[in-house]
Amino acid sequence: MRNDDFIEVFEGALAPELCADIVRRFDASGEDQPGLVGGGLHPELKDSRDIGISGKPEWRDVEAQLSQALLHCLVRYLRRYPYCLIAPLMIQVPLPDGSRPLRAEDFPALSDESLTSIARSLLRPGAINLQRYRAGQGGYPYWHCELYPRDARCETLHRHLLWTVYLNDDFAAGETEFLYQNRKIAPRTGSLVIAPAAFTHTHRGNRPEGGDKYIATSWILFNRAEQIFGQA
User: Fold this and answer.
1) Fold for domain 8-224?
2) Measured between alpha carbons, how far is 200 from 145 in angstroms, rounded to an integer?
3) Please, what is the average pLDDT of the chain?
4) Tens digits of per-residue pLDDT, 139-179?
5) In sequence order, which residues have a C-beta less than 8 Å from that of residue 33 and are 6 or more positions away?
6) How far apart are CA 58 and CA 60, in angstroms?
7) 3 or 79, greater pLDDT
8) Which one, out of 128, 159, 177, 199, has a CA that is 20 to 30 A from the CA of 216?
């Protein structure tokens, strides 16, 4: 029987050499700032040093490589959980037997290119954050999910999936722990985790011991309604 807890770990999504280079550049950049949560700076909830890299010219290559790795893993995730894409929306697509709503049983026949195109029409990447958690000190011990209603533009409510890439594993503990699934994901260099963003996947980042923990993390969001459905 499959363990359908909707948490998928993709080993080797990023090459170890690239991960090591990102860690090196993080440390050399001097750009890191105290990590924030939705309500602002609360180190008792999240103790980290962060760099937001999206849109920054000096990080463009890293952003592109992370985005490419994510897209490859997202297609695999959608093949396992097709209702992640089609349950929220009735997707009309041209198929060999005519235009009709996309069904889960159609997914095996879709090429990666076709599925990628459909996904891009409905979903978009979030801003990427690099984070460092200090050994014996840093962590995100507060149980939380990724949906947050404070944003007036509702961007945070468009979050559909979360993802994290572990950039190193030369430390103990530091797992990503999911509350209701009773599951701890042990960091492995280059592994990428995808899971739902809602309260069902409430999680926390445990404190690393014996070495600092580095990750890249963000979300996969729905496109805004005006892009999917057009202007009313």
Assistant:
1) Jelly Rolls (2.60.120)
2) 8
3) 94
4) 999 999 999 998 888 899 999 999 999 999 999 999 999 99
5) 49, 50, 51
6) 6
7) 79
8) 199
Counting residues of the chain whose pLDDT is more than 90, the rounded percentage is 84
d(CA 112, CA 100): 20
- Please give the average per-residue pLDDT across 46-60, as a whole number: 97
Number of CB atoms found within 10 A of residue 67's CB? 14
**pLDDT over 50 at 1, yes or no:** no
Using DSSP, state whether 135 is helix, strand or coil: coil
pLDDT greater than 50 at residue 205: yes
CA angle 230, 104, 82 (to 5 degrees): 70
Distant-in-sequence, close-in-space partners of 68: CB < 8 Å, separation ≥ 6? none
131 burial type by CB count under 10 A (0-12 exposed, 13-18 middle, 19+ buried): buried
Q: Extract long-range pairs of 20-23: CB within 8 Å, 24+ residues apart.
A: 20/167, 20/168, 22/62, 22/130, 22/167, 22/214, 22/216, 23/167, 23/168, 23/214
What are the residue ranges spanned by the domains of the chain? 8-224
Report the alpha-carbon distance of residue 118 to residue 91 in Å, rounded. 9
